[in-house]
Amino acid sequence: MKQDTALKLLKAGENVFLTGSAGAGKTYTLNQYIQYLKARKIPVAITASTGIAATHMNGMTIHTWAGIGIKDQLAENDLKRMKERKYLREHLEKVQVLIIDEISMLHAKQFNLVNQVLQYFKGSAEVFGGIQVVASGDFFQLPPVGKNDELNRDKFAFMSEAWVQAQFRVCYLSEQHRQSDSVLDQILNAIRRQAVSDAQIQTLINTKHQQHDTEIVTRLYTHNLDVDRINEQQLDTISQKTHRFDAVLEGNEKLLETLKSSVRCPEQLILKKGAKVMFVKNNFDLGYVNGSIGEVIGFIEDEELGMMPQVRLNDGSSIAVEAETWSIENEEGKVLASLTQIPLRLAWAITIHKSQGMTLESAEIDLARTFENGQGYVALSRLKSIEGLKLLDFNPQALVLDRLAVKADARFKELSDEAEQNFAELDLSKQHEAFIRRTGGITNPNEIARLEKKLQGQKRSYSSDTLAETQALYEADYDIEDIASERQLTKSTVINHLSKLAKAGSIDVERIRPEEDELEKVRKAYKKIQKRNQVDDLNDDGSVKLRPLVSETGLGYEKVRVALIFVA
């Protein structure tokens, strides 16, 4: 299907599944539709199944937006508690169009939960509460993470009850926009059909002899062990001072093991100036996401945060990277276990799983030990051309795709072809107007033209007055966690904002004042560490660094940060 036909069907307000091969223009088409909606003031939620994909769409993860987190079921009490949270209630009740990108990586159970949440918040038994849902993705990408005994048919979103009820109109985009040569495009399409020829396999194998600039090449492996080995070898070749960052772990030991296995930064992070690194958490305010690649260009001291690596991203921007906290909470919001660490890992090599959503100029890829259907396809489809590929090792099994995904894809094509025949030449302008009216959008041509001009070429930008945005939410009685969720920031970043606002006398921080026993712990530890006067524990101005305070009090980074607003 052509993009124009897909846009015509999207504007008619039906639920749409937008699919096609890598580089077919799914994200571009979605962005066109988003601009259309915004110019008509139709409330749209832009989400994706992963942090990397979400930033491509200038959105947030569906898990955060819907408030489901990592849950795979919700009880009535869970929904009631969610409705008490102002930031969730406001956007869930208001939304008219929900976009979910990279739908292939969203588990069927969580897709059902999104349906359940919207029905509850909209007070409607209609599927997804009666709003338009646009799912985009390619089920030949790697499947969602699930339990060890789960089959892919248990995990794919298209096998969920919500998918069947939504009755998606399928738009299978057929034009190719990423690959710049027909050779790689033909190989990828042959993989999708599961009809790769011996000559095409030989073409892939022959790339082993291609030479690339080792400074910019990305190495993709199937296993973390290979990735860690390459990264450690590369780090050893750098003759710079070593800086070590140890994670701070607090809480239940079993839950901590769960955190350590799911969080992608190492418990002990070793960095040097010149190290190639990848971020493993989102911080939209600072300008990085889970998967951003950069290089350590130095280390700086902060009076509150201690030693921080300074990272230059591939776009040239520079970030001082502070520690982040991952936590597991119970139903009342109490933290049961937490892990605090610099959100980085070495990145001369990365796993194929982590490469999803990236577009690479060149890559060295090892497909010798693939263990998941689709790994070879995902890795190869990251590249723009066959000239950018150096296939280090190969196993024909790497090109095998999930059989259910192959069958589903064939059916998606058939449904899309039918829609193309039925709607390509049909005038749907009346349906477009009806959808705008139903969703409360505007129809005044002059107003639409004005908004379109304003939105033209507009990119996501971070507020020049980010403190004012935090202040406005705080003064509207949002708590720290809700401000973080609303602004897509970490809680530690919000606390830093509040600290600066308090010092400037801009806000009254009494309502976040910790219990007196916690404040006293921080006061005593602060004085004790100052008196000890060890260089490693103090900033240049004599104030105490954050890390030794956390170790001394046992309160955790976030509690200590809040206490310092009142103590230091």
Automatic annotation (TrEMBL):
One annotated GO molecular function: DNA helicase activity
GO biological process terms held by the UniProt record: DNA repair; telomere maintenance
Keyword Hydrolase applies: yes
Annotated InterPro entries: AAA+_ATPase, DNA_helicase_pif1-like_DEAD, Helicase_HTH, P-loop_NTPase, Pif1-like_2B_dom, PIF1_helicase
TM region(s), chain numbering: none
Domain AAA+ ATPase residues, every copy: 12-231
Domain of life from the UniProt record: Bacteria
Record keywords, A-Z: ATP-binding, DNA damage, DNA repair, DNA-binding, Helicase, Hydrolase, Isomerase, Nucleotide-binding
SMART domains for the chain: AAA
Protein name: PIF1-like helicase
Naturally occurring in which organism (per UniProt): Acinetobacter marinus
Taxonomic path: Bacteria, Pseudomonadati, Pseudomonadota, Gammaproteobacteria, Moraxellales
